[in-house]
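Forum: Protein Structure Q&A
Topic: Joint prediction for protein chains with partners

I've read a bunch of threads here and the consensus seems to be that you should model interacting components together rather than docking separate models afterwards. I'd like to see that in practice. Below is the full input, 478 residues plus whatever partners are listed. Could one of the regulars post the assembled result?
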Amino acid sequence: MIEIKDLKKSFEDIEVLKGISTVFETGKTNLIIGQSGSGKTVLLKCLTGLITPTSGQVLFDGQNTTKYNYQERQQLRGEIGTVFQGSALFDSMTVLENVRFPLEMFSSFSMKEMDKRSEEVLERVNLTKESFNKFPSEISGGMQKRVAIARAIVNKPKYLFADEPNSGLDPKTSMVIDQLLHELTVEYNTTTIINTHDMNSVMEIGENIIFLKNGFKEWEGDKNEILTADNEAVIDFVYSSKLFTKLREVLLKEKSNSIKK
Amino acid sequence: MREVYDLGMSSVGLVSFISLFMGAVTAIQMAQNFQGADIPVPNYYISYATKVVLILEFSPTIISLILAGKVGSYIASSIGTMRVTEQIDALDVMGINSPSFLVMPKIIASVFFNPILIMISIGMGLVGGYLIGEATQMWSSSDYIIGLQMPMAPRLFVYTFVKTICFAFVIATVPAFYGYHVKGGSLEVGRSSTSAVVWTSVILIILNLILTQTILS
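Posted by a regular:
Agreed with the consensus. Here's the joint model:
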């Protein structure tokens, strides 16, 4: 479980996070949603330790990590898996080498054991053996995301973070990636936090959703509650597409019919 | 090993080509000066002077400046691209000390291979001088070989070696610094690459003066 308490982050005079408190539960896919510039990425970077918050607490299973020294932080990082927006695969390494890399750094496995584990996770994310020896530039965006996920889970992390895992992907591939992240969350019992502004992801895997606006937590709930939320900012965000506007009309109609009955 | 290839082996062709021609040009210039001098200067001084120029200045300094352009821009742009594509963030999140992980192999490869490149440069420069002598018959090959065999003070070799090592360190670290601190996108990577080459060259030139004054004076 990850808990954040009154988390604030400023860059010079600009306050990006303005006191966010919430709990991300273990075994659930927790989503952070909001428009561009709402502070999602900064919040995720504060959680992964890439950015130090100005004030507030980040508690990983009750331990305040903002007070961690370098060694404690390094130890924690061994328990974290991260999927970056652009996959962030190492260009000079093959698919297999990319996935094996965290094991080479942190495990005492033999090369054979590392290869076996890497191949296992690559197969788990539905990549075939033909792609193992290809370089990131030789595979599609969707495959790159799968490799990034495989690399994130190869060390069996307790905490899994994903920053916009669907960016640049077609809707069908996005859905596959969403499902994969959800399945892995359950399978490895990780505390998974995903940054997204994709409403399809929200409806697909949003077990716990926090909505950010201008650095504040504006709303919190799950995928069923978000469609009928009465928060104006949430309504504006969720129903920005015509498809969801029509869906809202249907839902409101159903709601009024049930009240009449 | 890949760093040794990227930073060293891949430059062997360029260094050899430039050194061959520059050695020939230097030898012709020496011949012009010595053969036109008021006091008669033996022809074997042509190769001796060419050798001294190549060992003291041309190979360590000029080749390092050329490498600052070729290798420096490669280091700055490759690390800069890793920064803007979040590959360095990925290393940091994994708990890997990214500056040490990325820069240290480059320093080792550069410091290890730069002296080899400089030796190749000196050798090719001397071959260039020999070949142009044979082609133009401006001096005899026996005179050229006698001049090459004339001794040089050992501290001159020490001076060249120290310069080569220091320059190799600068060529690896300054561009790495620029690449590592890139913020933005591809445009910024290009700018940082340019700045890296400019500042590496400036530092090499200043360092050359400081080392020359310190070791030779």
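Residues 32 and 163 of chain B are 29 Å apart (CA to CA).
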